[in-house]
Amino acid sequence: MAPSDIDGQPSALVPTPDSTQLAPLGLPPLPDKAARQTRNALITVGLVSLLVATYAVGIAVGVPMLEYVLGAGGVVIAVRERRKVEHGLRVYERARADMRSGQIEAATAAVDEVLAHAGSNLRYAAVYVRLALLRGVLALRLGQVREARARLLAVEATGWLGSFRISRQATGEGYASLSICGSVLGDVDEARAWLERGREVLDPTREHAIVPHADDAIDSSSVSLELAEATLLARQDDHQRLFALLQSLRHNDSDSDLLGRALHLLQAYALHRLSEGENEYRGVFSSMPIEPLLAKLHPGELDFMAVHWPELRAFMHARGVSARP
Question: CATH classification of 76-214, choosing from 3.40.50.150, 3.40.50.1110, 3.40.50.300, 1.25.40.10?
């Protein structure tokens, strides 16, 4: 049973603890290069041996077409299994679209349905790891911070994050979410460690690094880590550095997606904390307007950031951007 992550009554985005269960999911670890080469060689030898043996048996029993019948059966099985992979990929893309549009519950239900029937076969491992990673991010968005951390840690332990089979965007999102979980829970050392690990894995100069796509105007993986860094600075009450960071971010000018709106929330929070105690007429920060930064926020969509953060929760409630009463 997932632990309660909400003090008091849950918001519209955070289900009660009784409605969330962390089902065990066996995710296969990423095999190293030598293991993959050995596996591919064994599969090739096995298929050739099976073909030769089938042909020999067919000739021996007087059924020369037997190998073709078995071959056709193998094709049918392969097509069925491939459809499972394609279905998983379709669910993944649709769930990401639902998450971007704020339909968190629908995305969660769709991902859970696939993961409930997930296997540990390496042929489909990348699909299931992507879905498991997305499920951890969805748990965070639902405000189930401890469950999100547990799910994301399980994915990170497989070694798939940072591999070419998992996109740079998803990898950055995974490490950023782990860092945000630490910040929200008040464990700033853990948050800092995951932030640094994410930067290390996404470093384009490292061997076999997944580099940003040439057509991407903004590297979304970097934006995810920027949000994690901003959250960490806010949690440490380092509002001067937080404000300076947010002023320097190009993506902070956008409020068309959740990342941009979350950065705006943290900028408003930093201004609020920096203006405390300032003279209303002479203060540098108290003269800067906060409301425009919060204008595009949808009430409740960022409640997950304040689940275990009383100061931020009080600020969001006072400004009317929290769904909690």
Answer: 1.25.40.10
